[in-house]
Amino acid sequence: MKQENIRNFCIIAHVDHGKSTLADRFLEITRTIDKRKMVSQTLDSMDLEREKGITIKLKAVRMAYSLNNEDYQLNLIDTPGHVDFSYEVSRSLAACEGAILVVDVTQGIQAQTVSNVYKALEANLAIIPVLNKIDIDPQASEGLSKELVQTFGFNENDILRVSAKTGEGVEELLKQTILRIPSPKGSDKATLRALVFDSFYHEYLGVVAVIKIEEGKLESALIHKREKIKFLATKAESIPEEIGFFIPARKATETLNTGEVGYVATGLKDIHAVRVGDTIAPEKSNVVPLPGYKEVKPFVFISIYPIENDKFTQLREALEKLSLSDAALAYEPENNSALGFGFRCGFLGLLHGEIVQERLEREYGLELISTTPTVEYKVVLTGGETLYIRDPSTMPERSRIQTLEEPWIKLNIVSPSEYVGNILNLCNDRRGVLIKMDYPSEKKVVFEYELPLAELVYNFFDDLKSTSAGYASLDYEFSSYKPVNAVKMDILVHNQIVEPLSHIVLSSKAEDVGRNLLKKLKEIIPRQQFKVSLQAAVGGKIIAREDIPALRKNVLAKMSGGHRERKDKLLEEQKKGKARLKKFGKVEIPQEAFRQILQS
């Protein structure tokens, strides 16, 4: 295939605007997949993606199409639309020269629409704006096209109208993709340099790197001659087992030329040897690495433990394999007395954490328990040392802390204008600072806020949907660390600190949070033979207390008579026994109780 006839492009949009359905129509029109074998959301191969109706993993597929008696190779990358998977989008953009921006005419411009346009512009991609679902409301497209022109500066004549469901206008979009998106640059005479933009693990082929050939070519002769390739960042070397491309199943080929997207099966069994954003080159070459991706930084931290402690090794192996296909997942081992051995995992958001946990349970047969989500705090000690705290149990004593800072995010919210008051109240309650508010049209408003990340973690998205009847959408990115008046709140059960229940909370809210938590604990912890005290403490000061009454045994039940003195003697012995139990007894909190309190 001639290099000038190659087109690499991705589809970007807000969640549920029709990306995957449009990809289905492309596969049909190009006859990449037989129509009889087509299923809805063909590229969404995971059960979770189909169940939730969202794309979680980027997918690459090669299509062939003829226009004006010329054959073209179209490499499509389908991308996720939810904010938690924006890192997948940035990786897709790095392997493309153009992007199709899909906007649902029934929903209009949403938060991820804005975010994705700016990402594509930063990557210098050619953007084709498309209004989808015109079969539902043809009239809405006129007003929306003007909104796109006003918001992003597109030329109104360049905006295409399609229905991905019925196929209307899709073939014209495919032709415009060839005409408007440039072919890849790079010399096929140069030394091989290939960008790794995704990877996964195959039981027989080892680590499989999904790549774009930026310069030179990758030939199967390497395999026949047993010549090695190297990964410039990790210094790993391997003899490729297979090269090929996706249709969307793997298909082996003899050569991958400059500009083409495909894969190389490295044969490596060490999953840490291949890193997303790395550069592949011949073993004996001395080339400069391609610009990689910025290091992804997790926003939300959740501890994950296997319910059966002997499954810890299995959990480690599952996380290793999952992290290969999910470059945004970070994890490190930890243990505590209540839950045993597990991992402290970093995610890009709550949905990302939920998806990873579900994948671990489904794909690897694990039963897991997860802790309350937390964020990373920055602590400057009195000695000048800086620490980053992801777990309340590692928080230093207050006397050693000079300053405590929490992460803030820049938050963009797009909403119908009738919900302006509700959203302003919600953000004010969550310590948000309004930066600006724009009206791209009479019926739509765009907010830009600064907000503490901790407030976003605690059900902000659900509250936003409730206050806007489900119409508002949001997008966010890390802004900076700012000082916060927060404290570590310990939970004591029978005078013993229970580390898994420790929280970092605002000083002003510590008492309320402590009381609510103790009320839940009182309902969950089984009663003992002695009275059990539940306490919330900040720096040694008790701020809330609940008591679980003793389980009383009627020692007089078997007495059918006798003197009063005999009864009093038995009761006195029982009283002494309970006092002794209270002094020396220990409260074993069952793991089921931890599961209930952490999930609530």
TrEMBL record:
Pfam family of the protein (one): EFG_C
Major subcellular location class: membrane
Record-annotated membrane-spanning stretches: none
Function: Required for accurate and efficient protein synthesis under certain stress conditions. May act as a fidelity factor of the translation reaction, by catalyzing a one-codon backward translocation of tRNAs on improperly translocated ribosomes. Back-translocation proceeds from a post-translocation (POST) complex to a pre-translocation (PRE) complex, thus giving elongation factor G a second chance to translocate the tRNAs correctly. Binds to ribosomes in a GTP-dependent manner.
NCBIfam families: lepA, small_GTP
GO biological process: positive regulation of translation
Positions with a binding annotation for GTP: D16, H17, G18, K19, S20, T21, N132, K133, I134, D135
Keyword set, alphabetical order: Cell membrane, Elongation factor, GTP-binding, Hydrolase, Membrane, Nucleotide-binding, Protein biosynthesis
InterPro entries the UniProt entry points to: EF-4, EFG_III/V, EFG_V-like, G_TR_CS, LepA_C_sf, LepA_CTD, LepA_IV, P-loop_NTPase
Membrane topology: Peripheral membrane protein
Family indicated by similarity: Belongs to the TRAFAC class translation factor GTPase superfamily. Classic translation factor GTPase family. LepA subfamily.
Name of the molecule in the record: Elongation factor 4
EC number(s) given by UniProt: 3.6.5.n1
Keyword Metal-binding among UniProt keywords: no
PROSITE patterns hit by this protein: G_TR_1 (PS00301), G_TR_2 (PS51722)
Keyword GTP-binding carried by entry: yes
